[in-house]
Each structure stands twice: as C-alpha cells, then as structure tokens.
Amino acid sequence: MNTSKRCDGVTRRNFVRVGGLTALGLGMCDFFQLQRALAASPLSNSKTAAKPKSCILIWLDGGASHLDTFDPKPKAPSEVRGPFNSIGTNLTGIRISEHLPHTARMLDKLALIRSVTSPFGVHNFAVQYLMTGYQPTPAIDYPVMGSVVAHMRRQTGILPANIAIPDLISRDAATLGNGFLPTSTKHFSLGSDPGKANYKVRDLDFYRGLDISRLERRRKIVEAMNQFGNLKSKTNGPQDPDLERAYNLIASQDAKAAFNLDEEPTPVRARYSMDPRSNLGDSNNIGQQCLLARRLVERGVPFVTVNNTGWDNHLDLETYANRHPGDPRSASHALIPGLDKALSALIGDLSDRGMLEETLVLVMTDFGRTPKINITGGRDHWPNCFSVAMAGAGVKGGQVIGESDALGEFVKDRPISPGDLSSTIYTLLGIDPAHELHTPDGRPMRIAPQESKVIKELLA
User: Fold this and answer.
1) Are residues 157 and 79 in the same domain?
2) Kind and range of the H or E run holding 242
3) pLDDT tens digits for 162-200?
4) What confidence score (pLDDT) does residue 252 get?
5) Residues 6+ apart with CB under 8 A from 230
6) Which residues pair with 436 in a beta bridge?
7) Closest to 458 measured CA to CA, from 346, 360, 345
8) How far apart are CA 195 and CA 207, in angstroms?
9) Mean pLDDT, to the nearest integer, of 140-148?
10) Separation between Cα atoms, residue 246 and residue 223, nearest integer Å
11) 231 shares its domain with 272
12) How far apart are CA 37 and CA 420, in angstroms?
C-alpha cells in the first residue's frame, strides 16, 4: 500500500481514515471552488466599518407569532391578546411576552422592528423573500443572504463560509440556496442537531475517528487520492487547488474541533439552556444551536443560520410555552422560553467575549400570525405585519422601530419590507447593497433590490 507522505507529514491513507474528500458532507468541487471565487471577488465599496464581521441568523421556521413574542397587545380583546401576559422591559414603556424575561432585561442591547410587512402568506414564497430580500419570481433564482455573504467575503480559513445548523430545509419546498451564485457558496448543512444526544456532524466523529459504517463509501475515493498523489509527485504542486484545500480540511483537527460542543464548560452550556440535571441533548435545541453558532463565528465563519423549527402553530398556543403539559420542566424547554434563554445567552456571551460589535445577531421568521385566535386555539399565517429583532455589529440597541395597529393586524407606522431588511443587513456587514453581482449569462444583479432602503435608525 502506498503510504507516501505529503510535505505536511500526513499520509494519503490517514487522509482517507479521517474522512475522505466528502468530509463535512460537502462535495469537494462544490465547496472549495469558493476559495477561488472569493479571492477574485471585489471588496465592497461601502463606507461601513471595514473590520471583518459575521452574522448569526436565528430563523424561527414556520412563522412565529409577533403577538406572542415581541409585539404583545395587552389592551386588546382576549381573542387577540391570547393566553399569555406581557411584561415590562429595561426600556421604559416597552413590553414583550411574559415568556421572554431574560430578553426583557437586556432589551437595551436589541432593536425591535415591529412593522415588517410582506405580501406572501405561504411558506415557500415568504421564506424566499425574507432570506433573499427579493420577491420570488420564476425568471430568476436569487441567492439567500448567507450565500451572498460567502461570495463577498475573503475566507482565509478552512471552515465553510456559510453554515446551516442543522440544515436549511423549509416548508412547502422553498428554494433556499446559492441561486445564480456558484454552487460553492451554498450553505453547508451539519445534518445533525447539536441539541440532541446523538449529535455528530456527518462524517466527523469526535471520539472514534472513522465511522466504520461509512468505510465502504470512503474506500471509493482511494483511487482519486492516488491520482492526486501521482500528480503532486510529478509536478511542483497539485493541479487542482480545490483538491489541495479539501485535503487540508480533512487533516485539520482544529476544523473538526469547531463543531465539538463538549469543549464548552457545563456552566456555559447550561447558560444556553441545557438542563444541568440531564445528559447531553435533553434541552431545547435552539440553545445548543446558538452556542455552536457562537463557536463558529468565533473561528471566523462569516454567516451561520440557526434553523429552529416548530413555529408554524395553527393549534393550541399554549404549546409555545409548554411543550409537554404536566411536565414541570417543560416551560424551560418550549419554544418561546427556549428562544428567550438562547438569545439572551448568545448576546451576553458575545458581549463578554468582545465579539458583539463584530457579530450581527438576527431573529427572523416567515411571517406573523393572525391577530384573532382561531377555533383550535392557535393562529394562522399573517404576513401583513410582523416583527424582527437585531443586535450587535453596529446596531443601535434600545429602540423599537415601526408600529403595528392596536390589534397587531396592520402596520401603523414605518412599513419595512424584507428588501429593506436585506439592504440594512448587508450594510451592517460592510457590504454595499448596491454592489452588482452577475448571473451566469452575464446579467448584472444588485445584491439588494433597487427599491430597498437602509433602515437608518438602526445604524449606531
């Protein structure tokens, strides 16, 4: 067997053992072409602060109710008010859901937008609009913001530039991906949930190295690796830099360690909502998802999406706050309380580490929910008015932008479109929203829509 070594001392056999060319679940050519594309991409001309920044998008998949989270209506009739009370915050006169007490105590670090509006009340179109900034059309496939950021950033590390935890799959077959950008900018999905006991990132095993169940699949790459070795030995360097980078990624213990939450102290994990009385995984998943997101941006990943599911609640709203009725622990594991602890821990953790000014934290969702509760005790889709929260990366916290009417039904003041959100997000990340990308056929395309406007109140 050929066990010749590269100049870095790693044998080809060891390369196969640690994961093969499909480590992390990425197609080699799909992902590593990103490095070349990024090196050739023009930098933004934006006058925003030039230091590198990252974004953590907390996506509440399904459509979280604005009335039961960031825009309660305590004076509305009971059929609108719903089953939850509201509480005061550290901002005078601003109230949010009673199930967001940790967030209420640090609202001075966040900006709430209560006047987001969209024409789309079905998941696929709504999600595409929010995640791309463009209204969906059959004429063109727009890239999500994570892909645009990955395309524009000069990524010098080994980790992917656009990561989804645990994936980026939405309802109604929404098209969420790289659009007209190179496939290498598409999000890398972990394929596993860090909030569960069986969490393991695809081909990576933190404890045993090679997963024997995948040995046969990985064996098939030996021929390709031998070919690579032969090419390298006959020339001054590899003919395919993507293959070289793939090799380096698989051989990197640091890259693999980035996904290992066991490196975090138990008190830190508990701060994000892990139940200290239980083993790994017995927590509301969003907490550990956000903790992993922090680890990734800490290591230079420009865009991380935390895709938290379960928010499409047409039935009993009580499940938002009590996952398992009768279980005394359920309140800390349900959707809204889980979001509360995860979001507050993430912002506090980033602040403590001196990372908040360089990291944009977003909380977004498909759309809001109907003001009037339906006959099953839930709320249905409602895109006319809903809420978004932001913090970090130059966001001026401690403010509420826009206003809904007395029932949370329509925008009363300062309507903001998903296009406006995208333009603002890019600006905060130091990317000019007017910068032009090009489709494969050469058609110029602005990063954000022509009609979109930056939300000036957010800029500190």
Assistant:
1) yes
2) helix 241-250
3) 999 999 987 787 889 999 999 889 898 888 888 887 788
4) 74
5) none
6) 446
7) 360
8) 18
9) 96
10) 15
11) no
12) 27
- Residue 70: both structure tokens together: 């960031």
What are phi and psi for residue 35, nearest 5 degrees?
A: -60, -40
Do 421 and 283 share a structural domain? Answer: yes
The residue length of the chain stands at 460
Q: Within a 10 A sphere around the Cβ of 177, how many other Cβ atoms?
A: 19
Q: How far apart are CA 125 and CA 384, in angstroms?
A: 14
Among 238, 203, 261, smallest CA distance to 18 is for: 203
Count of H-run helices and E-run strands, the chain: 14, 16
The Cα-based distances of 264 to 195, 274, 276, 292, 319 in angstroms read 14, 12, 13, 10, 30
What integer pLDDT is reported at residue 204 of this predicted model?
59
Element (H, E) at 445: strand 444-446
How far, in Å, CA of 164 to CA of 304, rounded?
Answer: 6
pLDDT tens per residue, range 203-259: 555 444 444 444 444 545 555 555 655 555 554 444 444 444 445 556 678 888 899
Tokens of 425: 């997000």
- Do the domain assignments include residue 46? no
One domain for residues 447 and 364: yes
Would you call 397 helix, strand, or coil by DSSP? Answer: coil
pLDDT value, residue 36:
41
> Per mean pLDDT, which range of 63-67, 212-216, 300-304, 312-316 is the poorest?
212-216
- Asked if residue 333 and residue 212 are part of one domain, the reply reads no
pLDDT at 382 over 90: yes
* Rounded Cα gap, residues 156 and 161, in angstroms: 9
